[in-house]
UniProtKB/TrEMBL annotation:
Coiled coil: none annotated. The keyword Protein biosynthesis does not apply. The lineage of its organism: Bacteria, Pseudomonadati, Pseudomonadota, Betaproteobacteria, Rhodocyclales. It comes from Dentiradicibacter hellwigii. It comes from the Bacteria. Keywords: Carbohydrate metabolism, Glucose metabolism. Belongs to the cycloisomerase 2 family. SUPFAM superfamilies: C-terminal (heme d1) domain of cytochrome cd1-nitrite reductase (SSF51004). This is Beta-propeller fold lactonase family protein.
């Protein structure tokens, strides 16, 4: 394993904070405070950890940054305009394209990448996706799911060989009214989809058919702490690298919930719920599975947790200040 690096996008101070994480002790060291030419919000590390892609929300742009081997420090590369404020970023496994949904502008942009991993002009814009919040490819790189929060739907697209999105024969699945689908994730075996619902603080488990792109409802679990009173506001969803545990953040209770994943049925069972940073919006898990980092949008701090690989339980290790209004957290090995 190389150096573990944590990236935190800080929207209001217009910076990306770069921390080195000691993979043995959990100690943090500041590597870089990179001032950005815009307000960084969503981020995505490329699978080979050579590039970091950042959505500049107010500037309607997506920018690439080169990741220095060994240190993880960032150098700015090209940026492109997109027809909507980026709220999420995701790419295909063979590094050809990025997808950028826009919550504010109800659309999705397809952004080709050149041979160096730099973004090119938008090749396709899909309209009429009300409050589009995430876009996620399955493990084969063939199917893209787009969650639309206000219409309680997951839209299903097929990615063609020439990187064009085509609606599936059954183009969407309607979820329970009022839940507000926010983020979707595929299981490592591609058999299941997990959907975090922002408005009622729940997670839906769906069976996924990789042959025809079909979804079938299996289960709903709550991530809200016992005794919570108020309106939920769920934020982030992450799977452990081994697929055994699912973690979700909730902003109004400032908690992280842990669920065990059944490796046969895909169903979830609640394991734990802990207090974390105030209004946790961004969270990620180190590739080793041993560390989880969560940032508080109001507290302007990042906490790193040691992960028990047997139980999935979290134990706070170190806390560090960030820039103002941290939005997204990405962890990579460089």
């Amino acid at each position: 394993m190389g150096q573990t690096v944590i990236y935190v996008s800080c929207q209001d101070s217009r910076e990306i904070d770069v921390f080195a994480l000691d993979g043995q002790s959990g100690e943090l060291a500041v590597r870089q405070h990179l001032i950005t030419d815009g307000a960084p919000s969503p981020m995505r590390v490329r699978p080979d950890a050579a590039r970091l892609y950042v959505g500049l929300r107010h500037e309607h742009a997506v920018q690439a940054f080169a990741i220095a081997p060994g240190s993880g420090e960032l150098s700015p590369l090209d940026r492109v305009r997109v027809p909507g404020a980026p709220v999420y970023l995701h790419g295909d496994p063979v590094l050809r394209v990025l997808f950028s949904p826009s919550y504010a502008d109800d659309n999705l942009s397809v952004i080709p990448l050149d041979a160096h991993g730099e973004p090119q002009n938008v090749s396709q814009r899909i309209q009429d996706l009300p409050r589009a919040h995430s876009a996620r490819l399955d493990q084969t790189g063939r199917w893209l799911l787009v969650s639309t929060l206000t219409t309680d739907a997951i839209h299903i697209f097929r990615l063609t060989d020439d990187l064009c999105l085509v609606p599936n024969d059954l183009p969407s699945m309607l979820m329970q009214p009022g839940r507000g689908p926010r983020h979707v994730l595929f299981s490592a075996d591609n058999h299941f989809v997990y959907c975090l619902n922002e408005l009622d603080g729940s997670i839906d488990v769906l069976a996924f058919d990789a042959q025809n792109g079909g979804l079938t409802f299996l289960q709903t679990v709550s991530l809200m702490p016992a005794g919570f009173v108020g309106k939920p506001w769920a934020a982030e969803l992450r799977l452990s690298p081994d697929g055994r545990f699912l973690y979700a953040t909730e902003r109004r209770s400032s908690t992280i919930s842990t669920f065990a994943v059944n490796d046969v049925s895909g169903l979830l069972s609640h394991r734990d719920c802990i207090l974390t940073e105030q209004q946790p919006r961004g969270m990620d898990i180190a590739p080793s599975g041993r560390w989880l980092a969560a940032a508080g949008e109001i507290s302007n701090h990042l906490t790193v947790y040691a992960v028990d690989l047997d139980s999935g339980r979290l134990t706070a290790s170190q806390r560090c200040a960030t820039g103002e209004r941290p939005i997204c957290v990405e962890i990579a090995e460089v």
